[in-house]
Amino acid sequence: MSGTVAVAPPFLAACRREPVERTPVWMLRQAGRYLPEYRALRERHDFLTLMRTPELATEVTLQPLRRFPLDAAILFADILTPIEGWDLGLSFAPGPLLERPIRSAADVARLPRVAAEESVPYLFETVRALAAELPETTPLIGFGGAPFTLFCYLVEGKGSKSFARAKAFLWSEPEAAHRLLDRLADLTIDYLGAQARAGARALMLFDSWAGLLGPEDYARFARPAVAKILAALGDFGVPRIYFPHQGATLLGEVATLPLEVVAVDWRLPLSKVRAILGPGIAVQGNLDPAALFAPAAELERAIDRVLDEAGPGPGHVFNLGHGVEPTTDPDQVARMVERVHRESERSAQRGGSR
Ligand code: CP3
User: Fold this and answer.
1) What residue's CA is closest to ligand 1, atom 31?
2) Strand, helix or coil at 78?
3) FRET label pair with 189: which of 97, 117, 145, 304, CA 20 to 30 Å apart?
């Protein structure tokens, strides 16, 4: 009422393409190994223990926010977390490793139907704790892996550069592959919906391996499951962010998905990304994480270039084009966050809204 104007947090406003005073910024993989305080905790607990213990997962999520004035928090979990209920013998070493990968139609048929609230109850406890603890201005982002990216790990059983075995499964067992991708879509709808109900104020889908597919196979195998998830999540009224990593050639297919924000890597400048996606979609990105190893003046030039490429209109969330590298100097991250806020505020005051 009198004197109190409800102002959306800058991150949520930018996701909805509303004008902001300065460009909001957060960082892919902002909670983790480049922070000495994370490494200290990690010496005492393994990764799965950190993730499965709500007090510890909450602490790790908050660590970067204590250091930097970031505009959003991201839940400390992994994209493989929701498959814990499928009993495939998941571990991390440090990347995902499965004792029992999926290799046949029979393996797909055997997967149990388990509600996320039952298979990973700790995760929603963490979300509720964070929702209670975070300031109103710093929304919590919930996330999951996109079906094709999860499929890659489930079939290959571990990380890979080419995921040749997983891709071969697409073509040799297309029906089983579609069934598995659809099961992953259903699992993710339940998992992300429960995160939203527990207090996540935006939802992001990481499609880290989307760029392994050409546009035709992307449209045939990966996109339908992503579209199913995003359509179902529309009911929750929170911004939906989709990150098709190395997906510059896929953006034509991505532009027609039901979503608010597309996150992109640095391989295509944001002006070109926006030209393909059109004015109805916000963009998130896209500083090369390697720029954080550059001398200060070069880093600042790279940041300014991203802001310029995003253009003067609203609908830009500043981020890296992929996760922050574990050897990154936290002082460089501080420099980046400050520069994004200061430069974007200056240009907004000069007239171009952000
Ligand atoms: O800060 C955050 O962003 C929140 C936490 C988060 C983790 N993983 C924690 C983690 C997020 C968003 C992820 C996403 C994730 N996990 C992706 C998508 C993003 C991307 O990088 O493309 C992928 C492909 C994974 C799978 C995965 N998990 C890998 C390849 C690895 C090993 C190496 C690595 O990238 O860190 C993990 C383990 C993992 N997930 C760690 C962390 C902090 C390292 C665990 C450790 O401390 O040893």
Assistant:
1) 95
2) coil
3) 97
> In this structure, what token pair is assigned to residue 134?
């975070």
For residue 184, give both structure tokens. Answer: 């992953």
Catalytic position from the list 16, 29, 67, 305: 29
Domains held by the chain: number: 1
Would the pTM count as exceeding 0.70? yes
User: Could you tell me the residue range of the domain that residue 228 belongs to?
Assistant: 31-69+72-263
Which atom of ligand 1 sits closest to the CA of residue 206?
A: 18
Instruction: Choose among 265, 173, 262: nearest CA to 211.
Output: 265
Please say if the pLDDT value at position 2 is more than 50: no
Does residue 115 fall inside a structural domain? yes
Q: Is residue 63 part of a domain?
A: yes
The candidate with the shortest Cα–Cα distance to 192, out of 236, 154, 148, 258, is 236
Summarised one tens digit per residue, pLDDT across range 121-134 is: 999 999 999 999 99
- Is any ligand 1 atom within 6 A of the Cβ of residue 245? yes
Is residue 302 in some structural domain? no
- Ligand 1, atom 12, lies closest to the CA of 29
